[in-house]
Amino acid sequence: MLSRASIGIASCRRLVSLSFSRNVAVSAVCCQKAQAAGIDPIQKLFIDKIHEYSNKSKAAGGKLVDASPATEKALTDEMEKIARMYGAKGADFTKFPTFTFADPTLEQVGVNVDIKPLTESAAEEDEEDDDRPGWLP
């Protein structure tokens, strides 16, 4: 029984090692072909689509690419609607606004009090006020 199990394990080991070496060999050939091509086929397709869109965009002259007349009409309707709602005039409202902030003039922090010297007449008034209670004006 033990000898049969060891024979089965040995044959499985040979089978696994053979399939592993075949997979590595096939993967190595695929990697060499991919390196010879220089780029992944999916990446190449993506880059080709970007170049195609760029060429179409330049040919359209800044308008929508591959737009049907219905799509262009819908765009102009929406732009007119926005112009009516927000009072935007012209095509400039599609650009990001520029903000200018002016720094406000700041007042100096502190107390500017002019202390006047006490005159004799003011000193006499203060003496007369000492007889009154503090809550009377």
C-alpha Rg, in Å? Answer: 45 Å
Low-confidence stretches: none
Q: Profile the largest sheet.
A: none
Mean pLDDT: 77
Helical percentage: 55-70%
Counted beta strands? 0
Chain-wise SSE layout:
Elements: H1 2-37, H2 41-60, H3 69-86, H4 120-129
What are the key terms here?
single chain; 137 residues; mainly alpha; 4 helices; 61% helix
How would you explain this protein's 3D organization?
The model has no long low-confidence stretch (mean pLDDT 77). Helices cover 61% and strands 0% of the residues. It is elongated and about 130 Å long. By secondary structure, it is mainly alpha-helical. The termini are far apart.
Please outline what is shown here:
The protein is mainly α and 137 residues long. Helices cover 61% and strands 0% of the residues.
